[in-house]
Structures are given as structure tokens and as C-alpha cells.
Amino acid sequence: QITLKESGPTLVKPTETLTLTCTFSGFSLSTTREGVGWIRQSPGEAHEWLGLIYWNDETRYSPSLQSRLTITKDNSKNEVVLTMTNMDSVDTATYFCAHRRGHSFFDNWGQGTLVSVSS
Amino acid sequence: VMTQSPATLSVSPGERVTLSCRASQSVYNNLAWYQQKFGQAPRLLIYGISTRATGIPARFGGSGSGTEFTLTISGLQSEDFAVYYCQQYNSWPLTFGAGTKVEI
């Protein structure tokens, strides 16, 4: 059974850097084709894919956010970390991590974590 | 760009509903549908246009091709009232539709 859970701050100030951790179980990010993605959903808005990381350390980012994002993984801890710099109020959203195998859909999602950006 | 219609669908339990999703360019068969209830994570319903995910009831069906896709729920049950999203995974960036809310 695959499970994922996001953790991190609920409130960050404008211009600060957000760091979120996705802790997962039920698969290994050292196994071929396994991947973890990050998706966010602003209040009342559609889901926005942010980026993802694969078992081979390949990363992909949303072109509109690429300059602000970094995704890394720690196989020994079964963790994926999302870093987003220069946070703004428009980045207020629920952030989800999700499992992806190969170039496919997201079959399992974390519960999400709400991050608010405010001074 | 993934465009879903309608934005909201008001229906009664037991009815059959059809939700639409249109892609701005062909996504071939790389199309998934998710269900999301308030305060919960999205749940994968359908992938590859028409394959139901594990544990998804047979009343959920997907169809379509290329750029036009449909999610059909036959015999709507109370637990089906939620927001439904389509997503293409054919090309970067991965994109989602804005959703269709199915309400009573």
C-alpha cells in the first residue's frame, strides 16, 4: 500500500523560502520508473503541477515556476523535498505530493498541506 | 490546456451524468480522471481514457479520444457528489482541467 504525507510550515512570509517534505511508504525511489510529483491547489482554483523527481534523479519543473523550484530526494529516509523561493501571497495553496510510475498518472496522493503566505 | 464543462452539474441521486474534458491538442490515450471531495486529496478514478483504477465501481466510465473525453457516472450515488478533474500526462507540463462540481 502506497502512502504519502506532506509536512512543513503552515505560514511563511513574503520573500521567504518554503520547504516542504513528502514522506512516503510502499515504494522506493531507488526503484526503476518510480517518481514523486508536487501539485498545488489554490483556493477555488484548478490543480497546478509544480514538478517531480524520478528514481534516477531526473527532475522536471513547471516552466512558469522553474526558476523558483528545487526538488530533491533522500532514498534512505523515503523523503522528497520541495523548495520554493521568493514566496508571495499568490503562492497560498494546498500543496500535495503524489506518486507516479513512469510517464503516467498520479495514482496515490498525500492528504495535502495548506501553506499561507502572509506578513 | 484542459477545458472541462460544465463547471457545475446539479443532479439527483440515481441519475446518469456526463462530464466533458477537452484538450487543446491531442493527448492520445494519456488522460486521467480524479475525484476530489472537500478537504480531501484527489482520488484516481480512470486512467488511459477508460481504465478504472483499483477499487473504482463500474458505474464510473471513461471514453473519448485525441482531444475530446467524457466521464460518465451511471446511477449517481450520494458518495459521488464531488468535484471531478481531468488531467493529461502526455506532455510537459502536466496539466489539469478546472473541474466539474457535481452537486445535489
Provide structural commentary.
The complex is a heterodimer of chains A (119) and B (104). With 119 residues, chain A is mostly beta strands. Chain A has no helices and eleven strands. In chain A, the strands form two sheets. In chain A, strands 2, 4, 5, 6, 9, 10 and 11 form a seven-stranded mixed sheet that branches. A four-stranded antiparallel sheet of chain A has the order 1-3-8-7, with no helix packed on it. In chain A, a hairpin with a 4-residue loop joins β9 (93-101) and β10 (106-109). In chain B, the strands form two sheets. In chain B, strands 2, 4, 5, 6, 9, 10 and 11 form a seven-stranded mixed sheet that branches. In chain B, strands 1-3-8-7 form a four-stranded antiparallel sheet, with no helix packed on it. Classes of the chains: A mainly beta (119), B mainly beta (104). The A-B interface holds A 37, 39, 45-49, 60, 62-64, 96, 103-112 and B 30, 32, 34, 40-44, 47, 53, 85, 87, 89, 92-99.
Give short descriptive properties of this protein:
heterodimer; A: 119 residues; mainly beta; 7-stranded mixed beta sheet; 4-stranded antiparallel beta sheet; 0% helix; globular; B: 104 residues
